[in-house]
User: Fold this.
Amino acid sequence: MSAAISHPAPAVVDEKNAAAALLRPMRYTSLAYRRMTLLLLMVIGWGMFCFIYQAMVGLGVTGLRRPVFWGFFVTDFVFWIGISHAGTLISAILRLTNATWRYPVTRAAEAITVFALMIGGLFPIIHLGRPWLFYWLAPYPSERLIWPNFRSPLEWDFFAISTYLTASSLYLFLPLLPDLALARDRSRGWRHRLYRFLAMSWQGTQIQWRRLELAIQLMAAVVIGIAVSVHTIVSWDFAMSIVPSWHSTIFGPYFVAGAIFSGIAALIVIMAILRRVYHLEDYLQPKHFSNLGKLLLTMTLLWGYFVTAEMITTWYGNLPDEMGTFWSKVSGHYAGLFWVMVLCNFIIPFPLLAIRRLRTIRGTVIASSTILVGMWLERFLIVVPGAANQRLSFNNWYGYYPHWTEISLSLATLCAMALLYMLFTKLFPIISIWELGAAKHNAPVSE
Amino acid sequence: MKSATIEVSLRLPCEGEDAVNLPAMVQELRRQGIAERRIQVLSREPLAAFPASHSHMSKLGIAGAIFGFCGAIAGLVVMTLDYRVHTGGMPLIAPFPLGVITYEMTLLGSILAMLLTLFISARLGPGRRYAPHPELDYGEAILSVTCADRQQAQTVRELLAGLDPGPAEAKK
Assistant:
C-alpha cells in the first residue's frame, strides 16, 4: 500500500475539536502572516502604479505590437478563468456524485473560484485602452445612442463572467451559513457583528437544514451548466474568429478540460499550503490529495489527448495558413515554450500521478505546480503564436516580448489573488465544519 | 400589541449511547396539543432522524429560469426597438450573442429564484429575530417550544420533564 493511504485517519474527526481547530486560524494572526500581507500589498501597490502609468501613457508601454494585440493580459485572463473552475465545478461534481471525501476540500475550492474570477475579470479592463470607460461593457441606457456592441466577444464575456461570479459567490456563501452562525455564537466585537449580519439569523432548525441542503444540491446542478458555458464562451472568443489555429471546433471542450485541469492543480497547491500553515493535517489528509491526484491524472490524459488531436490534425491537413503557427510552436520561435509546456503538463505529472507510490502529498504538489506553469504557457501559446502568424506560411515573423508593465501587472494580480485568499482564511473557516459533522451521520468516507 | 412569548428549551444529546429519540419527543409534544410551528429542534449539523420535508424549491427554480429567459428576450427586444441605431439591415443583437445572454440569464434566474425560496421558506434574513444558543455544541440538539404565556410554559416544562429526566431550562 502506498504511503499516501497507508495510515488512514479516522473517517470523521471529532466535531467539537474540529470546530475549535478550524476556528483557531481566524482568531490568531502570526507575525509571518502580517509580513506576508505587507509584502503582497507592496507588490499590489507596484502593480497599481503600473496600471495607472499604462492608463496615462497608453497601451504602447506594453509589448503589444502589430499583429500581436493579445499578449500577457489575454493569457492571464484565460488562465485565471480556467483556475476559477477549480472550485464551483469540482465542488459541484463532487456534491452531485456524493463523494463523501469532499468535505474538507469543497470550501477551499469554492473560494478559489470566486477570487480567481475577480482577478480574471480585471484583465479585460486592464487591457482596455481607456479603462475608465469599462462600464461601456454593460448594457446601460445611453442618451447618445452609443450602444454596447452586442457582437463583441467582450459583451459575451461580461454576461458570462458576471453570471458565474454571482452564482459562485452564492454557492460559496450558502454552505458557509451554518459556520457563520457558529462563528457568530463564539465571537465578540466587530467579528460578532459581522457574522451576525452574514449568518442571516441562522439557528439550525431542521427545516433550515433541509432547505439549505436542497438549495445547495439544486444549485450545484445549475452551477455546472454555468461553469461549462463560461469557459466555452471564453474559448469562443478565439474560435469564432477565422484566425488559423484559433478557428477550431474542439476549442470549447478543450478549454473546459484545460480549465478543470489547471483548477484541480491550483486546488492541490493551495490545500498543501493551508495544511502546512494552519496545521490542518487532521483534516486535509493524504487520501484527499491522492483522490484529487487521480482526478488530475484523468485530466492530464485528457489534456494530452486534446493537444495531440489538435496538433496531428493541423499537421496532416498541412494548410499553409495554419502551418506558420504550427511550426512556430514545434520548432520555431516558440518551440522552447512549447516543449516546456509538454514537459510540465504531461511528462513530469504523468508518472507522479499514475504511480501509486509517488501519488503522495509531495508528489501531487510537485505535479500540480508544474501543471500550473504548463497551463499558463499553454494559454500563452494559444494566444500569441496564433496572432503572430495570421495567414502567413512562414513562421517567426514577429516575436512578442512582454514589457515590464505587463510582467508587473501579472505578478501583482497573482499577489492580489494570494492576499484575497489569505484574508478569506482569516475571516471564515476554510473547512466546512458542519459538513464534517454531517459526514458522521452519512455513509463512511470512501477511499 | 404583541405579547411576549416564553421559550422553554431542553438540551439533549442526539448521538452516542445517551442519544434520545428526538422525533418521538416532538411527536409526543404534538399529541399533547402543542402546535407544530411552536416546536423547534435546533442543532449544529443536520440530523438524519428528521427526514426531508416537501419543498417547491425545484419547481420555483424552473419558474425562475423561465422568468430569466423571458426577461432576457424581452430586454433585448425592447432595446432593439428602443434604440434606432442604423445597422444596414443587420439585427442590432445578432443570434449568437442573443443565445449567450439568454442562456446566462436563464440560469441566473433559476439560481436567484432558489435563493429567494430558501430565504423565505427557511426564514432567513439579516434582520430576523433569532434566539441565540451559544451553548449548543456538536452532538447535541435543543428541543425548543415557544409558549404564549407563563401557564403554557409551566405545562410544557412539566411535559418535557415527563419526557426526559433532565431539567428543563426556561428563557425569556
